[in-house]
Amino acid sequence: MMTIQWEQMRGQNSARMDEVLALYDRSFPLEVREPHDVFYSGFQYAQTAAPNQFCLLIGVEGDQLLSFASGHYLAEVNTGFVVYIAADSNHRNRGMGSKTLAKMEDVFNEAAFLAGKSKVSGIILETEKEEEAATTMEEMECRKRMQFFAKNQYQPCLGIDYVQPPLHSEGPTVPLNLLFKNLDGENVHDEHVWEIVQQIYSEKYSAVNNIENTILGNCLKQMGI
């Protein structure tokens, strides 16, 4: 039985990056996929953004890539934001998705510690809405994802009609579910979720994706933030 090795990518290993991006392309439909260069802007951003961080975690066994997750540590709100998570379809039945999420929690805890906190207070992520699915197949996929996240203690943030800004120029805003895993036992108020969303917009969609501020401002207004 081989063991899974976890590594944080910094963008230097180009052969490994190509594998990560190939798994990424296989795992997500075009409309929710950011251009590849956004990953590289993430690495650039990370060089000067501390205590905020961009993280790209991979799970490997031997020379085989099993899974990856990308995300941001948002220091201002002491929250981790998982942007993408995918496991190679040949290894999904080994619980790679849950293992990768758990490992991301460790990564965010390390980032929180570097930011002077004892641990990360929560982790947030976006996921497709069932009612936005175009086909029955997509609807089933959405339901499966929601069940997977629920099993990993991620609960829907009900106090916000969340939208993701357009990832491609001229694209539409995308209504998504926002899920939150509470790690500090405090009740999470809507106001706190709104603060997290503002940080996601500023540290991710503005600083890394380079989406125009007018577009981001309109999205926030649409959500009542």
TrEMBL record:
GO molecular function, one term: acyltransferase activity, transferring groups other than amino-acyl groups
Protein name: GNAT family N-acetyltransferase
Domain N-acetyltransferase intervals: 7-181
Catalytic EC class: transferase
Keywords, alphabetical: Acyltransferase, Transferase
InterPro entries: Acyl_CoA_acyltransferase (IPR016181), GNAT_dom (IPR000182)
Classification of source organism: Bacteria, Bacillati, Bacillota, Bacilli, Bacillales
Organism: Fictibacillus marinisediminis
This enzyme's EC code(s): 2.3.1.-
